[in-house]
Amino acid sequence: MNNSMISAMVSMSGIQQRLDMISDNMANLDTVGYKRKEASFEDTLTRVKEQSSEFKLPGRATPSGFNLGFGAQATTATLNFSQGSIVDTGNLTDLAIEGNGLFAVQAEGGVQAYTRAGDFQLQPNPEDPETAYLVTNRGHYLLNVEGDRIEVPSGSKLQIDRDGNITAKVGNTDTAIGTIHLVSVQRPDALIQKDDNLFVLAPGSNVDDILTDIWGLPEEQQVAHIRQGALEKSNVDLTKEMADMVQVQRAYQLAARALTSSDTMMNLANNLRG
C-alpha cells in the first residue's frame, strides 16, 4: 500500500468522525440546553522529505525538499459552552441558566451528574403521596446545595428566584424548600458528555479543579443565575452546521477519489510489470 492510499484512508476516517459530530449536533437542534460539539484535527506523521543531490542545481531559489504526510486525523472533541437563546414558556418548573453554570442532578445509580437542560417536572414521591420531586425530563433528580433531592409539597405553586431559592406556596402558606445547586465550569475539557444531555467528570479528576459552587462566591463573582418560566435552547446554528456538512462531504469525496486514483495507478503498474 503506497503513501497516497494510506493518506486517503486516514483522511477519510477523520472526516467521517467530523461528519458524525455534525450529524449529532443537527439531531440535537431542538434539545433543551444542548451544547454544540466541535472537533480539532492535526496532520499525521508529517515530515519534510529531502531530494537527492541532483536537484540542488546552481541558482535554484526554492527548497529542494517537500512535505510528506499521511493525511489528517481528529484529535480532540470539545464542547462549546456558549449561551443558547432563552425562550419564555410560563411553566413554573422550566428553568434557564443565564451565564456559565450547570444544574447538579442525581443520575441513575446515584451518580452525580450535571446538565443545562432546565425542563424539569414534578414526579410524585412513591413513599409519600403528599410530596413530589423535581426531576429532569429523563427522571434524574435535581439536587440542592446540600446534595439532597429537592422535594416539594404536592400541588404547591413554586417560586424560584435568580439565586435558586425555592419557595412552595400552598394556599396562603409559603414554605422555604431550599436552594438549587448550581456550579460554574472552570475546565470544560474535563467534562464527559453522556446520554440524556448529562455531563460527568472525567475519571480521576478533582471536582474542585473543574467546578465551582456559584452560590459560595461573592455576589459580584457569581457568573450565572436562574430564570424561572423559561428554557435555554440548543446553541447549535443550523446554517453553520449545514455549511460545514457540505464542506466535509466535499473533502470526503476528494479523499475517496484520491484513493480510487491511487488504486488505478497501482493496477496499471502491476499490468505493465506482468
TrEMBL record:
Residue intervals of the Flagellar hook protein FlgE/F/G-like D1 domain: 96-168
Domain spans labelled Flagellar basal-body/hook protein C-terminal: 227-272
Keywords: Bacterial flagellum, Cell projection, Cilium, Flagellum
Signal peptide feature range: none
Keyword presence, Secreted: no
UniProt superkingdom: Bacteria
Domain Flagellar basal body rod protein N-terminal: 15-35
Cellular compartment(s): Bacterial flagellum basal body
Predominant cellular place of this UniProt entry's protein: other
InterPro entries for this protein: Flag_bb_rod_N (IPR001444), Flagellar_FlgE/F/G (IPR020013), Flg_bb/hook_C_dom (IPR010930), FlgE/F/G-like (IPR037925), LlgE_F_G-like_D1 (IPR053967)
Classification via PANTHER family: FLAGELLAR BASAL-BODY ROD PROTEIN FLGG, FLAGELLAR PROTEIN
Family named by the database record: Belongs to the flagella basal body rod proteins family.
Protein name: Flagellar basal body rod protein FlgG
